[in-house]
Write a structure and sequence with these properties.
heterodimer, A: about 280 residues, alpha/beta, Rossmann fold, 2 domains, 10 helices, 8 strands, B: about 90 residues, mainly alpha, Non-ribosomal Peptide Synthetase Peptidyl Carrier Protein, Chain A, about 0% strand, globular, binds nicotinamide-adenine-dinucleotide, PP-bd_ACP (chain B), Carrier domain-containing protein (chain B), ACP-like_sf (chain B)
Amino acid sequence: MEDPAARLAVLGAGVMGVSITTLALGQGVPVLLVETDPQKRAGARARIDHELRTAQLMGARPDVPQGHLTISDSLVEAHDVDAVIEAVTEDAELKSKALADAAAATGAGTALVTNTSSIPVDELASRLPHPERLVGVHFMNPSYLIRTVEVIRGARTGEQTVEAVGRVLAALDRRPVFVGDGPGFVTSRVLHRMINDAARVVQEGRATAEDVDTLMQDCLGHRTGPLRTADLIGLDNLVDSLWVLHRRTGDEGCRPCDLLLQKVRDGEHGRKNGRGFYTYPGAVA
Amino acid sequence: MSESTTERRFVAEDVETELKQFLEKSTKTSWESDTDLFADGGVSSMFAMELVVHIERSFGLAIEGPDLRIDNFRTVNDMTALVLRLTGSDAGE
Ligand SMILES: NC(=O)c1ccc[n+]([C@@H]2O[C@H](COP(=O)([O-])OP(=O)(O)OC[C@H]3O[C@@H](n4cnc5c(N)ncnc54)[C@H](O)[C@@H]3O)[C@@H](O)[C@H]2O)c1
């Protein structure tokens, strides 16, 4: 833990905060994980341990000592972190507030990174005193198994920020693909709409979720199938992201379908709480 | 290591049956003892970890260190061998 190559703070201990933290710790990078919900905070360490084991099982952990984890309710002692990675709920207001707090709690050299699925980076940057400090890095889920990340340079993202985030991604052994800014960037713009359509097919009673996934996997080479992917993402987050896309593009294909809305109302959030399009009896809550 | 008096011992057939039942229930497919579950996108890496947790709970053991690698879980035979080894059921008879 002496002289670590990079230090990170991660905001939010949900699906992605836990996944990104697991990635970093597994690469030997220390993390300060900040979560406002006491219940989520209490369960975070066990969930990270579980995901570290998953990473090991899948051969995705290099032979380095694990990074040190600190869990907190606020960004104290984060002044010298290389980057703050924001992975809070997909809500522009919440994110702007969290990023502004992060900007105030850290030095000018700390890169601010948003892991938003769909909100344009420049929209979030516009509410910061120093918009050049913000860049988008869309880590995939699970972050420790998927090496490629989508990096979004907003109109005002500074060169120094891009360089800082490049160093962080190198420490995390991730491979960036740089794309332009805009609702959903590349991956969510394409994937979320497709998942919405897949859910609509089930809603219309034309096929079961399993049959949709089997066809997409076996005929079209989709690795996990869109609805299993939806469960992995979290249906609540998926609906939030679809609304972000719908409001910013006007694309009716992005309006979350009734089945998705119903599942979220019924508390069926996918793998994270054991039930979505599928059930997960063995899932760690 | 030598606490075989307190350890539960298992026979291969029972372990296999238990594993196959769990797999069938979870994947809605039946699996031969030597079929690679992970080949051809059979089951996902997320399911692999559920399998590990299930085995730990069912047979009262902890799978750690070098044993925690996907090659130990590829087939029902691989998993059975691991369970027998970690519970000491494969020795002394
Ligand atoms: N789920 C995915 O597969 C996925 C993939 C890529 C990107 N994303 C994006 O990552 C972000 C997080 O998504 P998620 O799926 O982890 O959501 P989630 O709902 O699982 O977790 C969000 C967490 O943020 C916490 N939080 C809210 N406000 C906070 C604050 N001010 N400070 C600290 N914590 C706060 C919440 O309590 C919650 O635990 C979203 O922007 C989402 O769109 C998600």
